[in-house]
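Model: You mentioned two targets. I'll fold them one after the other.
Researcher: Yes, keep them separate.
Model: Target one:
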Amino acid sequence: MIVGKKMSKDYYQRLEISKKANQEEIKQSYRKLAKQYHPDANSNDDNAVEQFKQITEAYEILKDPQKRATYDQFGSTKRSSFRPGSAGSDGVFDHMMSGFFRSQFHQNPNEHIGVEVLISLEEAAVGLSKTIPIPREIDCTKFYGSGQESGTGVTVCSFCNGLGMTQVQSGVVTIQRACRVCGGLGKTIDQPCSLCGGLTKILKRENIEISIPAGVKSGSKLRIQGKGQNDDPNFAPGDLIVVIKIPDHPVFERSGNNLRRQAEISCIDAMLGTTIDITTIYNKKVKLTVPAGTQSMSVLRLNGLGIPVLNTNRKGDMFVQIQIDIPHELTAKQKELLVQFKTELKKT
């Protein structure tokens, strides 16, 4: 059981940090205190449970730059003279304000997990189901999750003398920061845990099947609810955010839902016209009619053979840019025929 102590109304004091603490220092201090006062580790200690709630409240404000700035300006008790539950407040209004304060100060501490998934343009065109490994932080259970080996202890950090903070003088300004040796804990572990290295957390990979719809673009984000971190069982788990990445294709160039590719024909076919086979992104061959007199760099259109428009039955188009192949070498007979052709052209 943890010996009870009265929590300060000051959020910085609750988290045992200075008002100049950066986001990493805030996060490290919260994790240390949350582990100390977590209800799972103090199931019979109501005081620890209340202290856990209060440090979580402080963390939710200070980790958000906008909320932190508001708090720094007004303070926890000076922004309004009214507090939920104060004497003389109306019961209904009291209930409404209590709900407001809970929504502001007791937000979900379970973080989202972000991963990138690489798929091909062909897969983006048809959609797919894909199993991906998700690295998830879980508590190390070795030696009760203390971060140390069994039979060993902790030592007061000699670099900061157990304060967890060090000071650096810069002219007339004194800068206070988390100790670089103990990470702001004020103590060092004699023999770190062989599983977690003293971090009290280990990575566990979980295979999750995701459904990627046809038509996604590179940079698209998919949200899978409840598959993020679940450090605090008192709150809903965080979400999994999947960012889709699609590399450049060797044949097709994508522009929105349209595709563009090139096709090469001979100069004779360009003059006379022809029909050629074109392979689509769906690995099917279609016929493309090239009109007589087509010029090099001309663009022909094939309707409905592009990428699907997300969540619809429509598709973009495929555009084919014609490249005319000019032979580098000619036989004597070919030259003779071309000279005759040139002569005929002059007559028209």
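Model: Target two:
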Amino acid sequence: MDLISLNRGIRPELQSKKYAHVLADEFSIAPELAADQQRLWADWNHLDLDNYLKDGSRFRYRAFAYMYFLPSSKEILAYPPMPFVQPSEHNAYATDTQREFSPLPDASLTNPFLHEMILFNFQQFQVPAEKLCQPWKLDIHQIRIVASPDEDGHPSPEGIHRDESDFFAIHLVNWSNVAGGVNRVYDNNRNPIAITLYFIQIFFALTGHVIDPAFLKPFT
């Protein structure tokens, strides 16, 4: 029995458009995961500053882990902490830097809600049968973008990019007192193909994207 499910199938949409977005009310999450979900979400209140931002910026906080996943057995294990590296052709902002982000807490690495979300995400992608018996290396990022009166928040300071992954999914955990943050989707030739709004709960993609800066809502 799947503990996380959708009220519709998105595989055809993902295959034809190379992206799909899902609203929060389209999810069904088993009640027994509720406490684990809240424990995982609480991590976002304690993330450390991303020390690899340029010009002394302080708009991004994050934690990171690589995880081992074997689809055929549903085994999920954490690798020991190691740097995160993206080649400059995928991320010119980081320029091959070995970025040593704070690790996910041990309790989060074994959190049942996180593991069920990994299984759910993987099920949405069309993966060849022979690769279901092969191990996958997952990049798990917890990211919090903070806007202030002095500085907008930039989820994608590198601009249009394609993450060095076969597939990716972005989950929106919370959104408070900000505007902007629109997710723009591009094909492999950097032609715009879609815009998804900030209230999307989860975004799946097989292609490139950029997220606009977020800024504080003006008082009215």
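Researcher: Noted. Anything on target two?
Model: Residues 4-212 form a domain with the Jelly Rolls fold (CATH 2.60.120.620).
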